[in-house]
């Protein structure tokens, strides 16, 4: 590890200041590392993967137990950031995962996501209940159930405010002395064997190491192995008007993931209505039909997209929610071939770590992951066992 010596030279440069980049910059700056963060926009913004007011956070993650330490640590960090910034970031309104009893509903690349969730909860001692359809219906009459559902209810799950989380991370990073450059686009990355050079549309910077957390632009920036194993997909989010929003307030209604059939598309998720945000019930599905370009995807959501969401998901399942769509947004998933995270050394530039932690479930882990990336730097680039499940090398693709 070398230490920064001149004006344009840093210990670490972080490219991208969204969910993961802002968390990494904050963690590094808090440990006294000289760090520069660069973003092509001015985060938080609505051009990548971290906008739309809310993200679900669950401590027992059906995507696999390797993720549990990240989200558990993240919950601690969100509370620390709230204390530091006085911003409300995490609302533990409870979370419900629903699937047909006896089914094996697949989600985020995992068969029987509901049973996986319960296994992780038991392994990590995460407070939860397993509910029958009758119990779910009694507790959450807003849901129109078929009667064959089984539910996992986690009282400590809930929602995060992604834009505020990023704002908090960057505010604290700045207070710890991080240098942040926004509206500056990184164009080139180089590693000459002793340091990294990052070229932008405004200048050139050097560092001992760099972290590329450029979200949907990683395939373009990191290329090679990463481009081969990541695809970008446009997603849509919709807020529908409820007859009485108090029925959907966070003290009466949880975040939910509802796999109502066994096929991957028999699925939607949603959020309670907070009076500080858009006054509608926010719902979404996942769309993998076509590949998107982050520079040219359609940011507008059509009325047909809104109404097909209402007809297929909302009308048959959420009581007292009408067809009027108050607001919609389009956002990007960067999905790996196995729906996991890809985090590893750049195959050509060993001083550059590439962090693609999306596949539609990365936000909840971002605070803990930023800290883990910081520890990677402090540990002289040694990937601890915690990283093994996420390394590109595990895909055996010769990175
Ligand atoms: C619709 C939707 C719903 C989701 N729901 C959930 C959920 O409920 N729970 C959950 O945990 N996760 C969820 N996710 C996933 C989560 O939001 C993502 O994993 C996370 O936001 C990804 O963060 P990131 O830092 O990788 O990308 P971003 O936050 O997009 O940050 C990348 C940054 O890199 C910058 N950048 C790109 N190229 C350059 C360049 N050349 N030079 C400089 N800067 C550059 C961009 O401007 C951007 O700010 C969801 C994602 C979407 C899209």
Layout of strands and helices, then pairs:
Layout: E1 9-15, H1 19-30, E2 35-38, E3 55-57, H2 68-85, E4 90-91, E5 95-100, H3 113-124, E6 129-132, H4 133-139, E7 149-154, E8 158-160, H5 162-175, E9 179-181, E10 186-191, E11 196-200, E12 204-212, H6 218-222, H7 224-229, E13 230-242, E14 255-259, E15 267-270, E16 281-284, H8 303-314, E17 321-336, E18 342-345, E19 352-356, H9 366-378
Parallel strand pairs: 1-2, 1-12, 2-9, 5-14, 12-19
Antiparallel strand pairs: 3-8, 4-8, 5-7, 6-7, 10-11, 11-12, 13-16, 13-17, 14-15, 15-16, 18-19
The chain binds flavin-adenine dinucleotide.
Rg, please? 21 Å
Number of strands: 19
Distance between the termini: 23 Å
Helix content: 10-25%
CATH fold annotation of the largest domain: D-Amino Acid Oxidase, Chain A, domain 2
Number of folding domains?
2
The unique ligands bound to this protein are:
flavin-adenine dinucleotide
What composes the largest sheet? 8 strands, mixed
Structural class: alpha+beta
The CATH superfamily label of the largest domain reads D-Amino Acid Oxidase, subunit A, domain 2
CATH architecture of the largest domain: 2-Layer Sandwich
Tell me the series of helices and strands, N- to C-terminal: EHEEHEEHEHEEHEEEEHHEEEEHEEEH
Please state roughly what percent of the residues sit in beta strands, choosing from under 5%, 5-15%, 15-25%, 25-35%, 35-45% or over 45%.
Answer: 25-35%
Number of helices: 9
What is the CATH level 1 assignment of the largest domain? Alpha Beta
From the spread of the alpha carbons, the general shape counts as globular
